[in-house]
């Protein structure tokens, strides 16, 4: 029973209502959801912390401001202003099974309860978790069914020559098409925009004259035709228009192409000729090859100190065409409350290469970084030697006792029988037990010995790697790091690097001519050393963040 002086649990009420939900009855409105949740809290004797609403957001993902505010506060550990969350139905929280389980896992890690009013589900009971799994599967099934119905509807529209949706191609505009429907919706149809069409048709005409895409973009700017957003033309924008089949009278969805009901802006023969010339490898239309995808040298090695998740790799394009590659915490990427900063992959990888290159030339960098660890390892080595000697002495003493007892039995000084046999068996059991303990101590001593000599191990391995690093392909460089490093814990002001020890990398690392493999080093490493960026001279994480 709860003590009389115990504070009531504080709960956040979460309510969500998508655009489609608003016509399905009183239970789906935000006010109705909040009302039922408040009644539930009053009946349970819980305290209301606050109400969070997501109005007009779908439950297919977690890209909702309300749920994001809750998840971010959950990740702040001691800064939470609530003990749990309450909502009307499970599908109000999420319709995605993966997101639902990610939320449950996050709540369990931070001791946050949740209550589902209508389905009577409590996260603190096994029965509640079971029903939550079952109902979550049904919600996920419903979302997939909706997707199938949308797909079927899209196929039906495209086969009737009607657009599926999206932004109307530039050069067309909507006009009313007939009387409004009974629900008030006004049907529309796409017609050619005479103010834009004479200028936009230059795209195909210039392409058939063997003009480059960049030249076409400059010509559109010269004649005063801006993009739909009023900006100068870019190569990709021109290509998007030139390749769009809507302009020649077709409609397309996925891989299906059908004649459309709208009027073609461009003659089909002109459209096809322009696209043939663009696709051909001829002067004026020759494109530079697509650059190879960036190989993240530290992929799978970075671990977030905030939440314990591993960093994943991401890339994006900014205002320029150059991609930006970065590492980001996996939990933050899912929107589950972690606030760890993203890190520029190119800057981070270069900084790590530079550190290992410098440390290969100066062993003192390594000694300064792990000096304390070496001293502790040497102390453990002395203690391990002492323990091994003590256990071996006990084993020898017990063996002498067992041999003496056996001799006495054979000589007849001690009578044969169950008693003598039992005494002999006890001695053998003690010897076996001590031998097992000695083996464990030997392993600990070996690990301590390797750790005490870790500076030499690390330096020799780094020297071997860096002597071959620059000539290796990026995939091989990545394998070099995976063979050398166990994991890197990313903190706000430093890095902690756990490195494999105890084996010569000259035998363990690949040659640069070998095909890269994604296997980690063998598991027979006997120790690891801990390095930090403050000692290593690596730039702080903030200096490697995306702008």
Topology of helices and strands:
Elements: E1 10-17, H1 30-44, E2 47-55, H2 65-74, E3 84-87, H3 90-93, H4 97-109, E4 113-116, E5 121-122, H5 126-159, E6 172-176, E7 188-192, H6 197-200, H7 202-208, H8 213-222, H9 235-242, E8 250-253, E9 256-259, H10 268-279, E10 302-304, E11 311-317, E12 323-329, H11 330-333, E13 343-344, H12 345-361, H13 364-411, H14 418-452, H15 454-469, H16 474-484, E14 485-490, E15 495-501, H17 505-508, E16 527-532, H18 533-536
Parallel strand pairs: 1-2, 1-3, 3-4, 10-14
Antiparallel strand pairs: 4-5, 6-7, 8-9, 11-12, 12-13, 14-15, 15-16
Helix pairs in contact: 7-8, 7-10, 12-15, 13-14, 13-15, 15-16
The overall average pLDDT, rounded, is: 78
Low-confidence regions: 503-547
CATH architecture of the domain at 10-146: 3-Layer(aba) Sandwich
Strand order of the largest sheet: 2-1-3-4-5
Radius of gyration of CA atoms, rounded to a whole number: 35 Å
Name of the level-1 CATH class of the domain at 10-146: Alpha Beta
Helix/strand-derived category reads alpha/beta
Content of β-strand: 15-25%
The CA-CA distance between the termini, in Å, is 54 Å
CATH homologous superfamily grouping of the domain at 10-146: Resolvase, N-terminal catalytic domain
Number of helices: 18
Fraction of residues in H or I helices: 40-55%
What is the CATH topology classification name of the domain at 10-146? Rossmann fold
Q: Sheet bearing the most strands, described?
A: 5 strands, mixed
Number of strands: 16
Based on CA inertia axes, which overall geometry fits? extended
Protein name: Recombinase family protein
Domain Resolvase/invertase-type recombinase catalytic: 10-161
InterPro entries: DNA_bind_recomb_sf (IPR038109), DNA_bind_recombinase_dom (IPR011109), Resolv_N (IPR006119), Resolvase-like_N_sf (IPR036162), SSR_resolvase (IPR050639), Zn_ribbon_recom_dom (IPR025827)
Pfam family, one: Recombinase
């Amino acid at each position: 029973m709860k003590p009389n002086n115990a504070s009531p649990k504080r709960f956040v009420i979460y309510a969500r209502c998508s655009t489609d939900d608003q016509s399905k009855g009183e239970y789906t409105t935000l006010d109705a959801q909040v009302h039922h949740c408040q009644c539930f809290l009053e009946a349970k004797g819980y305290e209301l912390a606050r109400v969070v609403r997501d109005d007009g957001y779908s439950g297919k993902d977690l890209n909702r401001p309300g749920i994001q505010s809750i998840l971010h506060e959950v990740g702040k550990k001691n800064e939470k202003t609530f003990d749990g969350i309450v909502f009307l139905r499970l599908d109000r929280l999420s319709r995605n099974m993966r997101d639902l389980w990610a939320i449950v896992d996050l709540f369990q890690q931070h001791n946050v309860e949740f209550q589902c009013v209508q389905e009577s589900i409590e996260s603190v009971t096994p029965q509640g978790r079971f029903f939550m799994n079952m109902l979550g599967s049904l919600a996920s099934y419903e979302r997939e069914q909706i997707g199938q119905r949308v797909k079927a509807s899209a196929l039906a529209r495209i086969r009737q020559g009607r657009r599926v949706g999206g932004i109307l191609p530039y050069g067309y505009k909507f006009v009313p098409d007939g009387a409004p429907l009974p629900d008030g919706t006004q049907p529309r149809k796409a017609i050619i925009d005479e103010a834009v069409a004479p200028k936009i048709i230059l795209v195909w005409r210039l392409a058939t004259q063997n003009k480059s895409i960049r030249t076409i973009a400059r010509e559109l700017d010269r004649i005063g035709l801006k993009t739909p957003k009023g900006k100068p033309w870019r190569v990709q924008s021109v290509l998007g228009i030139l390749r769009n089949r809507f302009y020649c009278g077709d409609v397309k969805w996925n891989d299906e192409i059908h004649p459309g009901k709208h009027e073609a802006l461009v003659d089909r023969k002109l459209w096809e000729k322009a696209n043939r010339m663009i696709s051909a490898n001829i002067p004026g239309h020759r494109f530079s090859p697509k650059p190879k995808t960036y190989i993240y040298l530290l992929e799978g090695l970075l671990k977030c100190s905030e939440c314990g998740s591993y960093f994943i790799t991401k890339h994006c394009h900014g205002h320029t065409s150059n991609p930006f590659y970065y590492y980001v915490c996996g939990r933050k990427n899912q929107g589950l409350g972690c606030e760890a900063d993203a890190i520029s992959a190119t800057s981070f990888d270069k900084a790590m290469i530079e550190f290992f290159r410098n440390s290969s030339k100066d062993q003192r960098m390594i000694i300064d970084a792990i000096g304390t660890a070496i001293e502790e390892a040497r102390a453990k080595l002395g203690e391990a030697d002492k323990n091994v000697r003590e256990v071996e002495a006990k084993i020898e003493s017990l063996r002498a006792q067992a041999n003496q007892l056996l001799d006495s039995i054979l000589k007849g000084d001690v009578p044969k029988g169950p008693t003598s046999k039992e005494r002999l068996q006890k001695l053998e059991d003690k010897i076996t037990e001590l031998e097992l303990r000695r083996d464990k101590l030997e392993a600990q001593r070996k690990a301590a010995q390797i750790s005490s000599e870790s500076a030499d191990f690390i330096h020799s391995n780094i020297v071997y790697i860096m002597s071959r690093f620059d000539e290796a392909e990026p995939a091989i460089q990545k394998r070099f790091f995976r063979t050398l490093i166990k994991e890197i814990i990313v903190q706000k002001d430093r890095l902690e690097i756990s490195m494999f020890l105890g084996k010569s990398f000259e035998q363990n690392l690949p040659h640069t001519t070998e095909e890269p493999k994604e296997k980690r080093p063998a598991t027979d490493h006997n120790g690891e050393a801990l390095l930090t960026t403050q000692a290593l001279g690596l730039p702080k994480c903030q200096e490697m963040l995306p702008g």
